[in-house]
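Q: What would this complex look like in 3D?
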Amino acid sequence: MSAYQGDFLKEVEARVEEGEWVKMCMQCGVCAGSCPFGPHWEHSPQKIFMMIRAGKREEVLTSDAMWMCTSCYNCVVRCPRKLPITQIMHGLATYAHRLGLAPKMQPTRRFSVTFWSNLTRTGRVNELKLVLQVYFRNGFAAGLKEFWNMRRVGLRLLAAKRMNPFELVFPHRCKDAKGIQRMLAKACEIENRKRGFSQ
Amino acid sequence: MRDIATSQTILVVGGGVSGMTAALEAAECGKQVLLVEKSPTLGGRTALLYRYFPKLCHPTCGLEINLRRLKGNRNVRVMTMAEVVRVEGRRGDYSVTLRVAPRFVNENCTACGACAEAVGAEIPNPWNYNLNRMKAAYLPHAMAYPQRYVLDASIAGTPDAEKARTACKYGAIDLEMKEQTLTVSAGAVVWATGWKPYDAAKIQPYGYGRYANVITSVEFERLADPHGPTGGRIVRPSDGKEAKNIAFIQCAGSRDENHLRHCSRICCMASLKHTQFVREAYGEAARSTIYYIDIRAIDRFEDFYRKVRADRTVKFVKSKPARIAEDRASGDVVLHGVDTEGYHRYAAQHDLAVLAIGMETAVPLPQDAEVFPAGCAADALDVNRSVQSSTAAALRAIQVVNRAARAES
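A: Here is my prediction, written as structure tokens for the whole assembly.
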């Protein structure tokens, strides 16, 4: 019965960013056809919206579909109902991640987590560290191999002074890293209260 | 010219099926009516249809009846090539400024066509949505009323105009005609200025204007008409090949926040009707595919929809295509999208794509004077509902002039 009562739709409306737009979808299919990544998704946005309405909570939240969005905004531009489809996809991805239902090894999810921790530590992105973290994500041997493949680019960046190896030990930070972290913590607290997450 | 209209006259702006209906309903109730039309003929966009839905009868039939009523009624005065410049005043007391363009042809015209033969210059033919060209001396279409030729303003003062004048045996060509501006009084104004098709080139992903074989539903209507640019042969514009495998795309411009917000109401039925034109032309070899979000064949039209559903030459795909591409080698159109019934991705090749284009109001309502909108000036309507809407507008106008008459006596 719960499928027909739209429980999951109500949940999405209340707890997912821009989720209140989902019910506006009229299933025309323009988003699915416009997506440059379309053929590689498990479920197109149009299908995800229908699955939400059909109450397929597990299937939607464990799917890797919304993680495939590259934010090109083609669907948003063309949607006849002007749904913020890109934002909904990111909202669903974040929600699934916070519930711990998102696929663990999904590359976009892993990169997002790495990027977030890298950024929030000092208030600035440490590019060198981020690149190394990405290279070595699949183990030491694979990382070395990728490192070797990219050596020319790296040397040229060094020569052009676009990359500083000391960043690894003494990263430069923003003036008030602690302040940034406090702001982010406060924002998280407000967001959690709004979306009904405990701390 | 003030004497042609008084405060008890009803002015009807627009001579399409809505305007004709409003004018006739009021006139048959004994009211004085002035019917003004911007183009050289009455009939409007209805005259440009090949057939009506759902009975597939010819619009000439419906127009014929209205023209007979018009000819037999002394209360209606018709002015063609007259455009409303300004409407001032209020209920019971309007002052309307009209600009009348010169036709260069007077009442002596017998529509023999000698002037058209004499003239060399050609202009795009708006009565075929500019799909072909016509002589600069022309009769708009077979059902034109009045049945008088027009000399296009572009040849005024050229040797062509003189050729037309000498070719006319009846002295009907009058090159001295000038544009006139006149002011008339009216007690009520019915605004029946009709609709225009939405500009299909604005729907960028569908490639109208970039690909020759993407056309609109109004253009398709002309292709099917024996009086149209191809003599009724359904062929595609790029190479004249017979178009048997045709895609009809619904909601092209309608129900879209980026284009027209409203449902244009006629497009679904128009496309269902068009599939029957294709069937009529090619029999079992016809292949029509309707791409739709949902088919809006309301009330009694449901029967027609069921009939088309049962037709084996017609396929329905529940999907609004995302974009149209062109196959360079064959000139075919390729529709890309995802089908909502099963979420299958498709790239479907067709000879021709017909965009079921939405309707928008042709002329906005006057800002500073209250008028009674009728037909498609009021809302997106089909012919049947336009006639109902116009009868309602005529009734409101009659009430206003009756009140004005009581106040004066």
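A: To summarize the key features: Residues 114-162 of chain B form one domain. Chain B has a mean pLDDT of 95.
Q: Very helpful, thank you.
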